[in-house]
């Protein structure tokens, strides 16, 4: 038999599978020596690839060779120990094996009946995780709400908005659309861009989003301004539908006062969505739950284990307090999916919990992470990231050329060169171009700042010190 022309035999699959795992382990081992940010120009990768797919099958090894030769030089290494840009999308060996097992099982979990274990494991894992974060019991699957794994926080926020519209319109939105009502959505100037995108996708348009100012020092939403905006809108006949609370903004980690916002929306029936995409997972540590005070009042909550909790992208955990609002907005039952289990009302069909129909068995990777690390291991990971960020903040404070822009939040430090914006950005770019570490920037109150977010599972104090030395050198030249 021509071994390249057909499916791999089970023996070939094992052999190549071992080689693929070896490739990953070797890749990780090589990272310390590689520049963090890709050093290629536009088109460099493309140019090395053939213009058309091969007519005849090639040996699997050829793919691994091309990963080494073409792909790795074109990668920014997100699992690099000195990746501090954006928020690291960390991973872990356990999560990767969980993801691989999910691929191997290859089940479609769109409804309970298409693979009961896919739904029920996910429900249990999300109940475990809600408890681990100290979230309200109403979010559990045995209460009125429940959790679901979404691909990203952006999708979760979009889903929250659709649920909010369903509730506020009394079910009209799913039938007649958003109509002529002047729906309004609220978030701070620091709310993630996925909020505006959700309003665009929901057909409300970006003008429906009212952007509320923040306290210049904390970058947290001005709750009085929020209250005024809602009152003004109600008096003008507009319809407040959802308030977005940032529990850890992307730019500086700013924490909106959730309890105070909850007080404002109480009795107005406005949907309260908490976006804790990055910071929410820190709540596995009881000492890092303050910023979620008031979460009992939230209608929905999202956090991303795929950012800071060792779970390979994508894994965004989303809970609602009342699952009827969510499924009311999104349920649809074509004839070919009718089945006895759905009709019995005893099962959850996750296709009603997000925009798409099909879904993979993502719960396996989160399950693998929760079981192999245990909650104590996860707390240790979070605490070590926070301690390293504290160390960075000390280094910033000890060098006159630098200053902190905001108080560090959890594992995020935001700082700048006192010399000015140009020097700040030049120093960051010099470090990134050298490949020694990778940082990203933001603007705070109109001025440039560098963000250093610790999160990778392989980062040690040595890595943080190396990044800092590179910055100091760059500051000398800037
Ligand atoms: C990263 C981030 C998001 C978006 O995350 P995705 O999962 O990539 O959609 C949303 N909100 C906040 C606060 C974030 O930090």
TrEMBL record:
<comment type="similarity">
    <text>Belongs to the group II decarboxylase family.</text>
</comment>
<dbReference type="InterPro" id="IPR021115">
    <property type="entry name" value="Pyridoxal-P_BS"/>
</dbReference>
<dbReference type="InterPro" id="IPR015424">
    <property type="entry name" value="PyrdxlP-dep_Trfase"/>
</dbReference>
<dbReference type="Pfam" id="PF00282">
    <property type="entry name" value="Pyridoxal_deC"/>
</dbReference>
<keyword id="KW-0210">Decarboxylase</keyword>
<dbReference type="InterPro" id="IPR002129">
    <property type="entry name" value="PyrdxlP-dep_de-COase"/>
</dbReference>
<keyword id="KW-0456">Lyase</keyword>
<dbReference type="InterPro" id="IPR015422">
    <property type="entry name" value="PyrdxlP-dep_Trfase_small"/>
</dbReference>
<dbReference type="InterPro" id="IPR015421">
    <property type="entry name" value="PyrdxlP-dep_Trfase_major"/>
</dbReference>
<dbReference type="InterPro" id="IPR010977">
    <property type="entry name" value="Aromatic_deC"/>
</dbReference>
<keyword id="KW-0663">Pyridoxal phosphate</keyword>
<protein>
    <submittedName>
        <fullName>Pyridoxal phosphate-dependent decarboxylase family protein</fullName>
    </submittedName>
</protein>
């Amino acid at each position: 038999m021509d071994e390249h022309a057909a499916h791999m035999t089970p023996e070939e699959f094992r052999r190549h599978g071992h080689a693929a795992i070896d490739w990953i382990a070797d890749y990780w081992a090589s990272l310390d020596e590689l520049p963090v940010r890709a050093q290629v120009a536009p088109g460099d990768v493309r140019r090395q690839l053939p213009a058309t797919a091969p007519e005849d099958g090639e040996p699997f090894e050829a793919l691994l060779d091309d990963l080494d030769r073409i792909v790795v030089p074109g990668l920014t290494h997100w699992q690099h120990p000195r990746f501090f840009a954006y928020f690291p999308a960390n991973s872990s060996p356990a999560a990767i094996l969980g993801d691989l097992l999910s691929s191997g099982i290859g089940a479609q979990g769109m409804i309970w009946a298409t693979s009961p274990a896919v739904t029920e494991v996910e429900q249990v894992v999300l109940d475990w995780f809600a408890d681990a974060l100290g979230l309200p019991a109403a979010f559990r699957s045995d209460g009125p709400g429940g959790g679901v794994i979404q691909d990203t926080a952006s999708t979760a926020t979009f889903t929250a908005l659709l649920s909010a519209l369903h509730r506020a319109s009394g079910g009209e939105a799913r039938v007649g659309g958003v109509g002529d009502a002047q729906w309004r959505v609220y978030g701070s100037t620091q709310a993630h861009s996925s909020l505006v995108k959700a309003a665009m996708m929901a057909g409300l348009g970006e003008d429906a989003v009212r952007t509320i100012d923040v306290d210049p020092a904390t970058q947290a939403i001005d709750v009085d301004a929020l209250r005024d905006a809602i009152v003004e809108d109600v008096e003008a006949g507009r319809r407040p539908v959802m308030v977005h609370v940032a529990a850890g903004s992307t730019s500086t980690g700013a924490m909106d006062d959730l309890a105070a916002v909850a007080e404002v929306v109480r009795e107005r029936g406005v949907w309260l969505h908490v976006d804790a995409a990055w910071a929410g997972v820190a709540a596995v540590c009881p000492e890092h739950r303050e910023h979620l005070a008031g979460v009992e009042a939230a209608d929905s909550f999202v956090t991303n284990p795929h950012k800071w909790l060792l779970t390979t992208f994508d894994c965004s955990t989303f809970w609602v307090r009342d699952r009827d609002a969510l499924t009311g907005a999104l349920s649809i039952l074509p004839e070919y999916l009718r089945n006895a289990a759905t009709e019995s009302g005893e099962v959850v069909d996750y296709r009603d919990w997000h925009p798409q129909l099909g879904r993979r068995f993502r719960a396996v990777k989160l399950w693998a992470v929760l079981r192999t690390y245990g909650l104590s291991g996860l707390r240790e990971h979070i605490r070590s990231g926070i301690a390293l960020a504290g160390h960075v903040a000390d280094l910033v404070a000890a060098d006159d050329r630098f200053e902190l822009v905001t108080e560090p939040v959890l594992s995020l430090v935001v700082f700048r060169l006192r010399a000015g914006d140009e020097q700040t950005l030049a120093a960051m770019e010099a470090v990134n171009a050298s490949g020694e570490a990778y940082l990203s920037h933001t603007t705070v109150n109109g001025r440039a700042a560098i963000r250093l977010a610790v999160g990778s599972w392989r980062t040690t104090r040595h890595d943080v010190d190396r990044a800092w030395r590179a910055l100091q050198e760059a500051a000398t030249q800037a």
